[in-house]
Design goal:
The structure is a homodimer.
Chain A (H helix, E strand, L loop, with lengths): L5 H15 L7 H8 L3 H13 L3 E3 L6 E3 L8 H8 L19 H26 L3 H12 L1
Antiparallel strand pairs in A: 1-2
Helix pairs in contact in A: 1-3, 1-4, 1-6, 2-3, 4-5
The structure holds a DNA duplex.
DNA sequence: CCATGATGTAATATCAATTTTTACAACCAG
DNA sequence: CTGGTTGTAAAAATTGATATTACATCATGG
């Protein structure tokens, strides 16, 4: 199962605010047009990013801005903000292994550390990429 | 969004075959009892593992066995066998970013290599864990 | 050779999460 | 106070996972 598109949408949103924020007001309708998703989806993601302290959104007059320097916002910050999985676990464990079975009784003890090991590797990589990297990469394409 | 429980189920299945396969026939009903999921789910996963060359399942008389030495089956082999995502991509990209928008037009070029970078880190970690590790860990609990 | 107990698979139902869409109250600025 | 915007709720549509029923197919022991 794939990680939801809210993650790539959020990065797209940041790229738009960074690119267009100086010259115009970046509203949810503007972002909806650029991403081709419904404005309500944009507003919900902006809400998650706002509660995580990554963007500021002004009610009434409208428009969003980025709350921190780009090199201080990592992919992991964004991932954690928009990908709200229970307990923050990447892997879904089958719920009720049999306690009558020696394997079923111990599979969690055995597997949990290994699953964390994998998830940690992914999070480490997510933490190593910042929005400043994206700005740099994008700048090369925009010229 | 989480990775489906088919992955942890598959590992549970391997652990059962390895633990009980010598002393008894390991059927889909047996595995369904140990994992507490429906036997058809087990049979479907066994089918995916069989097509990936990781297990052998005998029709008619019944029972499953492991097709390779445990240290030659990695978590990545299992993950790829049971987690059938289109294109094998971990991240779901929003489908139709606007080609009218400079950001929308380039977001894929910018983001795709970064997403692969993250996915590769995860796959590298999955590749580093084998079923032999799980047998070792489980043995400590079974004694 | 057939009765039994398995597997393989299709079909359907249920459930959960995502995504879309409509609607509207709250809000701010000119 | 009017126009454009955000925040949010609610409902529908969509998708994928999981459960369940059903049955054809298969191997084997009696």
């Amino acid at each position: 199962m794939q990680i939801s598109s809210r993650f790539t949408l959020a990065i797209h949103i940041f790229a738009c605010i960074d690119t267009f924020g100086d010259s115009q007001k970046v509203t949810s309708d503007f972002l909806a047009a650029s991403t081709n998703v419904n404005p309500v989806i944009i507003r919900n993601i902006l809400g998650q990013l706002r509660r995580a302290g990554l963007v500021e959104v002004t009610r009434g007059s409208g428009g969003a801005s980025i709350a921190k320097p780009l090199d201080q916002i990592t992919f992991l910050d964004i991932y954690n903000a928009v990908e709200s999985v229970e307990d923050g676990r990447l892997f879904h464990f089958h719920e009720n292994p049999s306690l009558q079975c020696p394997v079923g009784r111990n599979i969690h003890h055995v597997l949990d550390p290994r699953l964390w090991q994998v998830q940690s590797a992914m999070e480490r990589e997510l933490r190593s990429i910042t929005l400043a990297d994206i700005r740099n990469d994008l700048k090369a394409y925009l010229e």
